[in-house]
């Protein structure tokens, strides 16, 4: 240890007077986690050991410290968390000042402006035992400093920087590009987390340890974009199965967003950003007040961003010829294209109104092409209001009440695709032209946007949640009863659509004043008729979640390495989901689909227990075992709609020597089937005879009876997870930290819908062999034909049926994923400041997928729609006095586009983000407590790599699951602490 580090680590308990130091920016504090093993001892000695272990300043008055004792503190903790544990139960508190902490009597008055004291209870993500890190696990943390250094405006953008988070799934950038990973159900334009690309339903997202009501179709994800970034203290990511701790959804891991509940003072933040094509603005206000028996925090944030149009990005086009790709433009243009009765094609000429068009004017053999990507948005216009509040009040010295609330309201508007289809124009239309003179109706492909306007999706989301808990300290034990309520409402209105029925009537109209004219260049139909033809669709979705529970945790007995600690509890959760639609795009008058309503509900009862056993500690002096910890957890859950599931978890941490920890975890996890996965009954279950393609048949097809809907035996998706890794913090190099984790996830019983391949089942016999029954018995067919859900649109008799195919949703698919996560960091003092260097990433080895347990395994790693082999994020931060500089390098590996034939290679993508900031202290007058920062993301404005991306609706030259279309964003932010 250098003399400089030693001097910075002197504990003021050895001093006779309080030491005052000039406050620096809060971002200069060291918030990294350190491995601690402090025995029960006098508080002064504990503070000395903590300062030496952390390499940071801890200042206090010897008279203030006195002879107070300190409890044992163990685990991977930040300096602030460790201080909170050491001072718990005393009349002292720690306040961050400059690059260290001051220990002082509680409520002694301000030391610095707007500085948040640490919360007295430290609950680590991944365990129910307070103040202890889960043995064997590794938690990735993004603290307040890292969030501010990123220069990003929204929580989903911050989460996108984590290499373990795959960009595929529900987020505002994938709407209209893909149906994968629940992206097609994102009617509210929200943002999900998709750890390791295992699906949005396989990551559990929490706020302060509490579940939120789900958004998306059927309730498929927690909308991360509703959480105000300015109110976040840190984001903790446990990229490991954790159903033994939290229950359903924690297959790929847990994301826990910690709010600034202990904030004290006032903070105003203003941020404005601009990019090529749009601007954004964010404003927030935080308040925090502490009194002798409690604390209150309240925060509000407003965010808005303009729309990013396709016209602002050259690669947002259906014509990919400039990139060496195909031209995907279609014949939906204005003017349009006529297809005659014999199939011949004729382009309608430009520069005329369609009223005097003759056959000789038409352009034979030419189709007018239109780019459906034009006049659409890559990112919607967004406006969001969000507010949080948290109250903590001691009712007695042993009983504490905590209440919190969350509210968010977001409106989004996106210019969307025109979902076109050819229109039939009868001879009664006064503008009718027959290219071949047969007098038969003609088909016209036509772009209606000149008439109706561009289709627009108007989305509106509201989410609100309340939580309350009552905590009682029973000696060394803590008992807690808690409850929460959360609700989300999503609404999507799509306007300027074509109402096909009313359009057909207008095309058949013989009056030139009121008939619809599709033969001109531009819009040449009366406004009244256009208004009649204009249609819309309206969707409502709402979800609700109620949770109640209690838990106890505390020490059971003493082991050689410390106290054996236990947490046990029980929970009840009620979930509900409803949806309804109003369609005005295919009938004369709007049709309401009715409401699925809150009968779509379930009730969940759970019990859990967790043990943490410090088997060996450093006091025992055993060679080769500096410390050995074991944790065991288990949870059993009973679902009202599919049954019971039990999941264990075992973790171990072994430190052979101080500074090196070897760890491993084994566990099982599950994801409960969604509401729509378990529903049965008319409208959902169908039995239909079909003619399907059959290469083994002389005629090329065979008749089958297909079963559609949900398999009644559908149950949870299950996973087995293994992790092993190490954490290295060599004593000889105090600023160095290196962590690596190998993970292996085997995900089985995944819910899959084989109906997407119903007409090719027999052509894919090897893939679907277990779902095909050849030569069904007469009794089997008789029962199927007599079923109330039977329908026979093709009139196929039972005697001609050769197969029964089971195309129902069921627990069919399997996935195997393995790889490593790593993080390497080094921090060292530099003059009057410090420098931080590091890199983190994830490197995948395999991602194999099977449609059924008996079908072939397919390697999907590094293919379109799946995670790439590796993602990396390098970092460098420099603090010199009141100035700071940060830079981040983001790298996404190349992959293969298997959606086209032949497959094409997609290049890797690397971007650079930078930030420079200036903090003002007490000597700067009215500017004190102010931080100014200038951030640039994607500094060199690198476009996403070219991808021949044919989507269900259109096409483009990039892949929004792997890259952002935002481009270079320059942002200026002011933060003022009062």
Give a quick precis of the structure.
The protein is mainly beta and 978 residues long.
Structure description:
The strands form 10 sheets. The chain has a 22-stranded antiparallel β-barrel. The chain has a 5-stranded mixed β-sheet with strand order 8-11-12-9-10. The chain has 13 helices and 51 strands. It is globular and about 105 Å long. Helix 2 (43-54) packs antiparallel against helix 4. The protein is mainly beta and 978 residues long. The two termini are 38 Å apart. It has a domain at 3-105: Phage tail protein beta-alpha-beta fold (3-Layer(bab) Sandwich), CATH 3.55.50.
CATH hierarchy: architecture of the domain at 3-105: 3-Layer(bab) Sandwich
Q: How many helical stretches?
A: 13
What is the class of the domain at 3-105 in the CATH system? Alpha Beta
- Unreliable stretches, pLDDT < 50, 5 or more residues? 1-31, 107-123
Q: Write down the overall mean pLDDT.
A: 89
Determine the N-to-C terminus distance. 38 Å
Global Rg: 31 Å
